[in-house]
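ok so for the tutorial part 2 we go from a plain amino acid sequence to predicted structure tokens. step 1 is just haveing the sequence, like this:
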Amino acid sequence: MNAISLEHTERVWLNAYLPGVPADIDAGIEDYPSLREVFLEHLEKFRERVAYVSIGTEMTYADWQVQGIAFAAWLQGQGVQKGDRVALMMPNCLQYPICLLGTILAGAVVVNVNPLYTAHELKHLLKDSGAETVVIFENFAHTLEKVIAGSSVKRVVVAAIGDLLGSFKGAAMNFILRRVQKQVPAFNLRGSVRFNQVLKQGRALNHFPVDMHLDDLAFLQYTGGTTGDAKGVMLSHRNIIANLLQAKAWVGDQLDQDKQETNVTLLPLYHIFSLTVNCLMFMCLGGRNILIANPRDVKRVQMILRKERFNGIAGVNTLFNGLLENKEFCARDFSDLRMVIAGGMATHTAVAKRWKDVTGLPIIEGYGLTECSPVVSISPIDIARMREMEFTGSIGVPLPSTWVRFMREDGELADIGEQGELQVRGPQVMQGYWQRPKETAEVLDAEG
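step 2 — the prediction. this is what the tokens look like for a chain of 448 residues:
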């Protein structure tokens, strides 16, 4: 990388900030020694509220905390130490936030795994991460069975769709999925333990707080592997907390925490965008998340949402387009909807125009990447004027405390309107790639 210093680059985009949005998040990160304090502060603050809804079953913030602590105690009882990797291989379900919280409280590192991974992809991830604990939905356990031999995995927790839905409803859902829809292939994972049994055992154990720091590793978030095998992006507690504070500064006090907002979580929580925005950012606002396990089943999504009134929704172009193809969805009342955010891929103008025609709200786009925890830039959000705004197709402007520059191939700064490589610096930028110093050096320069 070149020696052009960002310190001498004028942040012209600050002129586009809404009044009250700071140029930098000078304070806040050091107030939290780790994500544990972020979690516990907000779980206690909003303990009476509903945090998640899955297939009509609700989980309060208090329930989330109690069960997360139980999972942490079980991990510690199994010998899991600070820095050990715990792989979570689940779709959007109540078990995911519980295991996420428990892993963080135990001082371990969350390794998010796409449950649709092939055996080859999963084998690489397990070998590369060195994960010794895996929590997996039973629908995908047959994939783990194929690759567990020769891996570092010592313990497997198997979850089922009905685990937390109540005895009758849970049993019915499990029966339908296993026997009627045949969505659970046979598997044999010797020594595995069921999720509910883990919580039962954990509740009988003591959880011991772990000494954690901002620069400790919190997540190994694997990239898509477009240039070969997926790489583990090392995201620290500092990285994630910084991105939360940046997003919070961007929205400001436009969202009233005294009034609970309901959000539709279409994107999987194991994905970095949904993890930061839907799970963590919305937790800090005391929001209520409606979990959608399979957003591509639009009829099922509409059935889940038919009696719901929601204030926010985040997705990608293909999911928005799919919803617009459903007549029942298009006919619903969108008067409570206040914010629609898109990421992950470019939103097509035709989709955005139709979305505005149907819902009355524009789609707000941003840009991010796993290596940046993930949000780098986003369009200004003025909720009071949202219905007057139009889709722009722009990825917006950099968040507070974020520097960007566009570089030509010859190492010089690109002029306005000239093509160039986007380079980013900020507190949300990763520590590097897990056990890949060469690849890290190729993308991170001396300025970070």
